[in-house]
Amino acid sequence: AEEDLGAQVSAAIDDADFDEAECLLPDDVVAEAAGDDVTESSGTGGGSGGGSGDLEYSYSYAGCDFTLAGGLVLTVAELIDTNDSTVVEGFEQVAALVAVDDDVVPVEGLGDEAVQNDEELLVRVGDRAFLVEGEDDAGGDADPEVLAAVAEALLAEIG
Description:
Strands 1-2-3-7-6-5-4 form a seven-stranded antiparallel beta sheet. Strand 5 (about 115) and strand 6 (about 120-125) form a beta hairpin. The chain is of the alpha+beta class. It has helices spanning about 1-15, 25-35, 90-95, 145-159; strands at about 40-50, 55-70, 75-80, 105, 115, 120-125, 130-135. It is globular, with a radius of gyration of 15 Å. Helix 2 packs antiparallel against helix 4 (about 145-159). The chain is built from four helices and seven strands.
């Protein structure tokens, strides 16, 4: 089933052109929230999928990557509708993993609901869902506090 899920995610994003994806935040807001200068930003998009036990998740997203002076790359994106799924369905699938996967934890105080899954912070606000993800230049996960600060800035920006 996981191969099928991966194939679905890949198929959903194959034809998309994310270079022109809209940035949800300006560089200066990301820099202030992350505590480091943004040296580059560009449109991005993709998908993620996985699972634990009988529970699986998949979602696609579009937004921007922000490269920080210290080597951290942050992705700030909105979950997008693909394969006839709602934009919050992928969020709900990840949130369901809280009950069975110790790597997926709820995050209090962000949006209507938020969960941290390794380097991915997913936030739901009404019928919209957002991704804030980060990796350093060595492939390590971003500090969850930095992800939360960027998510807070995003929520303030979208009102």
